[in-house]
């Protein structure tokens, strides 16, 4: 039988005393947590350990004795350490002794109450107590498909990590305290850092209370009935800026909540949201300072009108090309002229609208630039909405062409069923047989011929404006991808993985130290950190936008049939 003793490396220089920790009988392992120094009163030690057990819910007890002498071990000390086993009565009683500056320690066990005491092989495992206590052990990915051996190893490691993590109250007492019990553990050099952290927590309480009050006020305004009327509710659901502001408002409510995080996942989520907000606002302020320096807002307003005019002129040239013989194709001249003049009139209205707004564009951009102080993501969403407003005429062209093309496609498919003696049953949602008379067949043939010969002209306009619409959607999609990246990236977890990799543990590895015959095997337990991909996958924050659920086949089918596509729909919206 192999006995595994997990010994904290910070206690290797501790003075002689007794070892306290947890005995895990299922693994035949002992997790040493601290060393109680001489002199002490056994009754007080038992009372202290019972109080620690009541608070931590961990079975902490005296596991054995520790001897650290720079000279030869005295016979009286050896007998006294053995007699402590009868006072605290733990089976087995572990005796660890370090003599002088030797690297090899003596480790043995006593079983006084056993009739047939067996000599056990002992493995001494050193571990960094501070790293193990602060780290969070993540379960293996795809636990359901992992082997039973791997899951069993993960549960054994989890028991050791939980023992150290739950024993924080034990580390509040050190060897410099004036109490009757003096301990050596990882925090033996003092708790100054913990005191500073507590002071910062207490100082942040008034700020969190003020932020909570302001957020409750803003949330009340957002839930008011005024915003539920048609124009405001429509704008709130369609503008990505409003969606992003609502998303950030939820984040502020999470981090300002006075409810304590119950699990490590909730704590990491709050920290990731806080760091994401902090970096987002910092980047937004940098963008705002860049915009208002050297009158860049005025230069941007001066170049916006010429760019809009240039786009309108290019569209006019494109329509003139379509109204002729595009690529040598023979088009229906009457329908071609009607559609071309219809779209040219819309471009004329758009140019008039842009020039009407030109005196106010610089002022609008000046006030819009101030919104960058709310964060870079808000500024990017405003940019996406501005692009949507500036290309609204292209969207109108796409809708007109798609509806006209879709009407002809469905008309041709319906008339094609008429030739085959079929019809679409609306109630049963299927195609049934049907008999038609000569008049119906004649009219159907006439309409089918008209729609078929007008289809190339309509399809060409639909193809051109669909490509323009997809170009605009691609630009907006790249902006939304950047916004989603900033919103969902767990920056705190990535920084923690970079600077304190042991905090995010995926497992452990053991390194064999010097080995000598007759001495216990000495291992060093080291923490394996999570990979960066696993960190992003585990702690990725949810975003407000969702990608289309349609596959590429479904998307191509919609484009072929002329159905409207909305690649950047938000959650809760109805899909057309």
From TrEMBL:
Q: Where are the transmembrane segments?
A: 203-222, 273-292, 338-357, 364-391, 397-419, 440-464, 470-495
Q: InterPro entries, per this entry?
A: PigQ/GPI1
* GO process terms (BP): GPI anchor biosynthetic process
GO CC annotation, single: endoplasmic reticulum
Any one Pfam family here would be: Gpi1
Q: Per its UniProt entry, which superkingdom is the organism in? A: Eukaryota
Sorted alphabetically, which keywords does the UniProt record give?
Answer: Membrane, Transferase, Transmembrane, Transmembrane helix
Record-level Gene Ontology MF annotations: transferase activity
Q: Know the name of this protein?
A: PIGQ acetylglucosaminyltransferase
């Amino acid at each position: 039988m192999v006995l595994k003793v997990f010994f904290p490396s910070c206690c290797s220089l501790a003075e002689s005393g007794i070892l306290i920790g947890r005995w895990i009988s299922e693994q035949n392992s002992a997790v040493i947590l601290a060393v109680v120094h001489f002199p002490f009163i056994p009754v007080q030690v038992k009372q202290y350990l019972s109080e620690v057990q009541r608070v931590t819910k961990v079975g902490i007890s005296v596991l054995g004795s520790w001897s650290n002498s720079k000279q030869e071990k005295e016979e009286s000390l050896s007998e006294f350490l053995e007699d402590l086993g009868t006072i605290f009565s733990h089976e087995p009683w572990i005796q660890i002794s370090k003599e002088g500056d030797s690297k090899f320690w003596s480790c043995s066990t006593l079983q006084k109450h056993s009739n047939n005491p067996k000599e056990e092989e002992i493995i001494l495992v050193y571990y960094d107590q501070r790293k193990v206590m602060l780290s969070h052990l993540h379960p293996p990915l795809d636990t359901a498909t992992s082997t039973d051996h791997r899951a069993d190893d993960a549960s054994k490691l989890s028991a050791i990590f939980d023992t150290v993590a739950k024993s924080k109250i034990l580390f509040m007492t050190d060897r410099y305290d004036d109490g009757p019990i003096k301990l050596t553990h990882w925090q033996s050099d003092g708790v100054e850092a913990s005191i500073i952290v507590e002071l910062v927590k207490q100082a942040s309480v008034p700020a969190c209370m003020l932020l909570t009050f302001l957020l409750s006020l803003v949330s009340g305004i957002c839930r008011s009935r005024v915003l539920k009327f048609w124009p405001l509710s429509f704008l709130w659901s369609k503008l990505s800026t409003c969606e992003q502001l609502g998303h950030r408002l939820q984040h502020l409510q999470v981090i300002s909540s006075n409810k304590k995080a119950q699990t490590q996942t909730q704590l990491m989520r709050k920290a990731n949201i806080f760091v994401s907000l902090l970096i987002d606002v910092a980047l937004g302020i940098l963008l705002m300072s860049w915009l208002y320096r050297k009158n860049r807002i005025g230069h941007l307003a001066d170049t916006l009108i010429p760019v809009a005019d240039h786009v309108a002129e290019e569209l006019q040239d494109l329509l003139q090309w379509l109204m002729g013989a595009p690529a040598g194709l023979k088009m229906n001249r009457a329908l071609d002229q009607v559609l071309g003049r219809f779209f040219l009139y819309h471009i004329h209205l758009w140019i008039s609208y842009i020039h009407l707004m030109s005196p106010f564009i610089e002022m609008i951009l000046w006030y819009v630039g101030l919104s960058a102080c709310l964060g870079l993501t808000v500024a990017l969403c405003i940019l996406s909405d501005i692009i949507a407003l500036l290309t609204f005429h292209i969207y109108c062209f796409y809708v007109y062409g798609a509806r006209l093309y879709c009407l002809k496609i469905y008309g041709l498919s319906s008339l094609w069923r008429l030739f085959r003696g079929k019809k679409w049953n609306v109630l049963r949602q299927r195609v049934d047989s049907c008999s038609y008379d000569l008049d119906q067949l004649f009219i159907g043939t006439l309409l089918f011929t008209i729609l078929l010969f007008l289809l190339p002209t309509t399809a060409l306009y639909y193809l051109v404006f669909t490509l323009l619409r997809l170009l605009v959607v691609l630009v907006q999609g790249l902006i939304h991808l950047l916004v989603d990246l900033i919103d969902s990236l767990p920056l705190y977890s990535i920084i923690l993985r970079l600077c304190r990799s042991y905090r995010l543990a995926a497992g452990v590895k053991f390194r064999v130290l010097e080995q000598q015959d007759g001495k216990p095997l000495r291992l060093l337990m080291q923490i394996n950190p999570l990979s960066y991909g696993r960190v992003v996958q585990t702690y990725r924050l949810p975003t407000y936008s969702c990608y289309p659920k349609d596959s590429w086949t479904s998307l191509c089918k919609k484009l072929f049939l002329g159905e409207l596509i909305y690649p950047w729909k938000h959650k809760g919206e109805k899909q057309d």
